[in-house]
Amino acid sequence: MATTVDRPRPAAGGEEGRRGATGWFDPRGRRMGGLAFILNRLTGIGLVLYLYLHLVILSMLARGPEAWDQFVDIALSPPFLALDVLLLTGLLIHGLNGIRVGLVGLGFVASRQRAMFIALMVVAALVAIAGALRIFSGE
Amino acid sequence: MTSDTRPVEPPPSRDEGPRSAPPFVGQVVSGAVLIVLLGLHMVAQHFIVPSGLRFYDDVIEWLSNPVMVAIEVAFLVFVTYHALVGVRAILFDFGFGKRTERLITNLLWVVGIVTVVYGVALLAAILNAA
Amino acid sequence: MTAPASEGHRTARFRVLRRKAGDAAPHFDDFDVAVGPDSTVLEALVAIRRDQDPSLTLRHSCFHASCGTCGMRVDGQEGLACVTKVGDASEVTVEPLANLPVVSDLVVAMDPFYDGLEPLGRPLVRSSENIPGALPDGVEAYTRYEDCIECGICLSACPIAGSDPLYVGPAAIAAAWRVVEEPRGREPGPVMRLMDDDQAAWRCHVAWECSEACPSGVDPARAIMQVRRKAAGARARRLFGMGGRS
Amino acid sequence: MSQPQGGAAPFHVVIIGGGGTGGALAHDLVLRGVRVTLVERGEVTSGTTGRHHGLLHSGARYAVKDKESAVECIEENMILRRICPGSFELNDGLFVAISDEDADYEPAFYEACLESGIPARRLTAAETLSLEPNLNPDLKLSVQIPDGTMDAMRMPLRFFATAKANGAVIRPWTLVTEVLARDRTVYGIRVRDLTSGREEEIAADLVVNATGPWAEIVARMAACDVPVQPSPGVLLAIRGRVCDMVINRLHPSGDGDIIVPQRGLSVVGTSSWVVEDPEDLGVPEDHVEMMYANGSALVPMVRHAERRAAWSAARPLIGSREASTGRELSRTFKCFDHRETDGVEGFVTISGGKGTTLRAMAEKTADVVCAKLGVDAPCRTRDTVLLPHDAFYTVVPAA
Question: Which pLDDT score is estimated for D192?
Fold first, then answer.
């Protein structure tokens, strides 16, 4: 898209001035929306990894009741439950922020995006805490 | 008032033919669907199945309902799409250039199809084993 | 009748990122500068060049947030050095804008920024016009885009421009939306077609950094979302056979 | 020594100083077929040029006391409107009488405007307030004249852009370390490229010193003397446009008597004093206070407006060293051929003047330069429409 004009340029740093493909998750100097973006990406990557992990684990279901129920016993141990809380938190952040990105990103309520982010993240925190209590109470 | 002196050229027409709907819209739509499906999933786990969807027998019984199977397959399709478009966006940030980007898109299509096929086959295997 | 700015009440340390042609990597140089309660980062940098190191290169011109040349990163955040106060800081880190090629020290090359505006016919009007009646009602809503001072700060703050050199960047899309909202005789169709693109309006990830960083209140992020809304609406109308143009 | 290779152009002129005057001179000289290299220590327009209040003078300000400057201004005002389309807010200006004393000054002022060729229109208090409702409601009357608002950097940048496109070599970040002379004849300069630290010599048939308030310092490098007095003024930018026209106080030139709307800001100016070192101006807080006080006499809402920036710019005034405020010095410009003033050949200084007259200053200087070099080419800058400012960054220089 950007036109590339071959132009003599006494650049000391050349293209290195760019933050770079891995620079996006550097939170230094970022403002609220930038942090939301970083958070959304990190949770997104985490959820993709979880998706494939989940698909692998589910293959145990095909191996019959013993294999699966044995796994479920392990999965009910506190360290695993902590991972569940992490998963829930990631889902909440990604999903709720996603509502904001979807609305704002298509030109709706753009002027309220900041307030919306704060409100949604408060909801995420509350639901995550409630969920954590419920998960650990063993219900 | 006066205008600029350099003549304003009409922007060059783009020669790439009709473009597909922007991935962003797809992300929003699939994201919205996922919120609904995931909501159903959570409600089902914690309110319909009394002890949560955990043990083998519960799972098998859950899947004996064809509506639930349909929902699971839909979930798989949408979540795979949403995940891989997200991965594509992150990969595109490396600025590889148009050709590599096309390659990435095609590769991710393959990954997505394999994922869905694997998931459906797994579902079939689980139901067969039961 | 003069009170030099160097008559400061205290000393602040400035860590300035330096790089000259031929340097393998940039490095920080520390300078201690006398600052007063109203000192700006630009005044301090000019004092460093005058009193300590004449080889320090930086861009500046108007000293009042109108020319847009002194955009840089102060303590990691983009701003115009001429209106960025030193405040109570005892240490201030100064780096060139990100996402643009470094020419030397704090100087970046601006041509990639202007290249993004070129295909649009460079619609950023450099002076606000004063012809009563010539503009539509509620013109206040439109004129803010004319406040763009082409400083490149939005490009530096944008996380996408940070990694993808193909993205046209916030300023160009804001300029394009100005043409759509207020054509002033231009045909907005081709501009919309340029912006309805996955390297243009659709590339944005809604981080809103550009609008938060803009020293001139241009709000490019809102413009990007307006472009998308219009483009998506046009696509939807086409999809359902209601005609409409992109 | 890097001897610039001449193509068709036989002469090479080096200009020291990348302000409006240097840029306009580069533009003028390349149009006359002279090869030009311009060196500037920082970014172009980073000295006085970029810091001025962005007023396209009608000349009315000088009409009573300095008719020469007034005539110069109105002529250049009309030329710039033609060759820099899009660079100006054609908003006109008002000279507003607040006190009875101001009103008494009006007949002389109005007559002087007409005598200088400045179109002027008398307005009653009611007419004035209908144009600019934020003005002091106690105003007595006003005179409308063709002032305008410009972008202090982008208008001059168009001269640089056009010069560059026509083959001039513009070198910012290039510090002059020595003016090279032999037998009282200047033959080039030694520079340090600040982007790399490399030093080199640039040969020249003639060197022009266009460094504004730095003119005396640079002239001394060539053992010459220029009576330039840096005379700074404080300017104050407040948030918001308190007016759409340029508002001047109708009285003999004084401190804090003008408000220029600039984009979303209003610039109040200016004070005046004199300094020795153009590098060290400072922003005296009492001057800022004075801008607030005098600005609010014109437009009361200035009093409580948010301060966006306050800065100083040094006018390069020509005149006696004994001046104490700078106001008594002429606002016109002067071109010095140092063969006549100091017996040094190959060295010319241009100084004085103001942003509005940059083209005229360049024309006068280019005439002197061309006469010295024996180049017989007319000035073409009156009718050459300039490239837009951003071409300075995007244009690919002719090889």
Answer: 97
Confidence of residue B4 (pLDDT cuts 50, 70, 90): very low
Query: How high is the pLDDT of residue A77?
Result: 83
What residues make up the domain containing D276? Answer: 90-147+229-318
List the single residue in B6, B10, B22 with the smallest CB-CB distance to C202: B22
Place of tokens 């045909």: C187
Between C104, C162, C212, which is nearest A31 by CB?
Answer: C212
Provide Rg for chain C, Cα atoms.
21
Q: Give D172's pLDDT tier (boundaries 50, 70, 90).
A: very high
CATH number at residue C50: 3.10.20.30
Q: How far is C129 from chain B (nearest CA, A)?
A: 7
d(CA A77, CA A99): 33
User: Hey, what are A31's tokens?
Assistant: 């403002």
Quick check: D279 pLDDT over 90? no
Q: Which domain holds residue C30?
A: 10-108
- Give the Cα separation of C210 and C206 in Å (integer): 10
Encoded amino acid at C221, one letter: A
In this complex, is the C-beta atom of A107 within 8 Å of any C-beta atom belonging to chain D? no
Report the run of H or E that residue D75 belongs to, with start and end.
Answer: helix D67-83
C206 pLDDT above the threshold of 60: yes
- Which pLDDT score is estimated for C246? 40
| pLDDT number for residue C140 | 46
CB atoms C122 and B10 under 8 Å: no
DSSP string, C58-81: -----SSSSS-TTEEEETTEEEEG
Asked whether the ipTM of the predicted complex exceeds the cut of 0.90, the reply is no
